[in-house]
Amino acid sequence: xxxxxxxxxxxxxxxxxxxxxxxxxxxxxxxxxxxxxxxxxxxxxxxxxxxxxxxxxxxxxxxxxxxxxxxxxxxxxxxxxxxxxxxxxxxxxxxxxxxxxxxxxxxxxxxxxxxxxxxxxxxxxxxxxxxxxxxxxxxxxxxxxxxxxxxxxxxxxxxxxxxxxxxxxxxxxxxxxxxxxxxxxxxxxxxxxxxxxxxxxxxxxxxxxxxxxxxxxxxxxxxxxxxxxxxxxxxxxxxxxxxxxxxxxxxxxxxxxxxxxxxxxxxxxxxxxxxxxxxxxxxxxxxxxxxxxxxxxxxxxxxxxxxxxxxxxxxxxxxxxxxxxxxxxxxxxxxxxxxxxxxxxxxxxxxxx
Length: 353
Ligand SMILES: Nc1ncnc2c1ncn2[C@@H]1O[C@H](COP(=O)(O)OP(=O)(O)O)[C@@H](O)[C@H]1O
Ligand SMILES: [Mg+2]
Prior knowledge:
Elements: E1 8-9, E2 13-21, E3 25-32, E4 37-44, H1 52-66, E5 76-82, E6 85-91, E7 95-97, H2 98-105, H3 110-129, E8 132-133, E9 142-147, E10 150-155, E11 162-163, H4 182-185, H5 193-208, H6 218-227, H7 242-251, H8 263-279, H9 306-311, H10 332-352
Antiparallel strand pairs: 1-2, 2-3, 3-4, 4-6, 5-6, 7-9, 8-11, 9-10
Helix pairs in contact: 3-5, 3-8, 5-7, 7-8
């Protein structure tokens, strides 16, 4: 069931247009009549309204996100139902999903990818500090918008988020196969480091336009996340720098204990890469150390030394393919402006130094 334009939910939210569809919900732009502002209404798909578990997930999602106030997290305002219409009301984001950007423009410029990833990491840090693990970090759940002339990334869809208090556990939902962590793939308990792994995969996808692992069945994906090293992104895009490869590699260590411990550490490294790049004209790959063709799986490896991880990077080729998902690119103009400005800023900062 799709709600018609003009339909008013709970005498307050007037439907304007459909703006997105995910696994469990249809997402609308709506007007909050009471406060006279644009909002987003996420409505549980009708096939799930008989399912108490999904209804519970909806309130979990709202509660998880509502407690988090951060620029890089979509604000949640309200949750409720009007008969069979179960909805979450949130901040309306005028922009695109990261998936749309990747489909249109990948491989993304290294600095743009670092900028977006560092913002996601900052949003995640806030969630983690509040005891919330997102568990479904992927480009479809990252919204991009322009604010103050800058491209801003916002994490959304806390639909399978888990509070560390355990109250809202939904252990059976494991995230999306391209992005789920080895521990999710094994069906084990996860903590905030699962989000760091998924963000590493997202960063890989931004700089290559491909996901590192492809498969036919969830089991194929699971085995690859558990066993296979992340391929060298440079086999797809030779412009990816060593620093970025190191970050991907550290984020995507098979064992959670070998990853960044905190999302903010990953954000710091990403910002360092950006600062370094602004300061240096010559960031040619020729100066980077050669990539070893050996790979030491970190599954039983206690050594957290980054230098070692760097040496162990695998140089195998990528068998992934680009996503063909067709996306309805909305509201093109403001987005393009923000991107143009990003490129201009990068150039300006580079020239100033
Ligand atoms: N606050 C928002 N503002 C604008 N678009 C949104 C917003 N939230 C979600 N969307 C769009 O709706 C899609 C599905 O939303 P999501 O919350 O991820 O639903 P699901 O839980 O079904 O995956 C997103 O990929 C995005 O395109
Ligand atoms: Mg989603």
